[in-house]
Design a protein that fits this description.
Blueprint (H helix, E strand, L loop, with lengths): L2 H6 L6 E3 L3 E4 L2 E4 L2 E4 L2 E5 L4 E5 L6 H4 L3 H9 L3 E12 L5 E10 L9 E9 L1 H19 L1
Antiparallel strand pairs: 1-6, 2-5, 3-4, 5-7, 6-7, 7-8, 8-9
């Protein structure tokens, strides 16, 4: 799976990525629905680049603290060595996810290696389903 294709589904227009992910997905059927169990996506050898260069930022980022400001500097041109994403769905429809990204930005700390660790949980399944529906809407209109 190409990382660029995965990010295309997020509708974050200012986000770019290169590189590939190898996936190991475990699916379970619970109460008639399919659920992810301990899914793992890991970058293929060779790494890649993640660039997030927002044209404008919302109020939360406009008033960001130093940590958020550093994060935005890092992901302006982050060359990663490895990416690991874990996903686990719960019966209520929520998904817990963790992103572990190791790499560097030559313009930050003289390119010193950095590990970015981001955890999220919540009704991500609904959000992803809506994003995919929105993403495929023009294609569906043409057929």
């Amino acid at each position: 799976m190409q990382l660029e294709s995965l990010f295309d589904l997020t509708e974050i227009g200012d986000l770019e990525a290169t590189g590939a992910l190898n996936e190991k997905l475990t699916l379970a059927i619970e109460n008639g629905t399919v659920a992810l169990r301990h899914a793992v996506l890991e970058s293929a050898p060779g790494g890649g680049v993640i660039r997030y260069r927002p044209q404008s930022v919302g109020p939360a980022l406009a008033n960001a603290n130093e940590v958020a400001e550093l994060f935005l500097k890092l992901v302006d041109d982050f060359k990663y060595d490895s990416v690991r994403v874990t996903l686990n769905a719960d019966p209520s429809g929520g998904i817990a996810s963790r992103f572990e990204i190791k790499g560097r930005n030559a313009a930050v700390y003289d390119g010193f290696p950095i590990e970015l660790n981001i955890s999220m949980s919540g009704p991500l399944r609904d959000i992803l389903n809506q994003s995919i529906k929105t993403y495929t809407l023009p294609e569906r209109l043409l057929t």
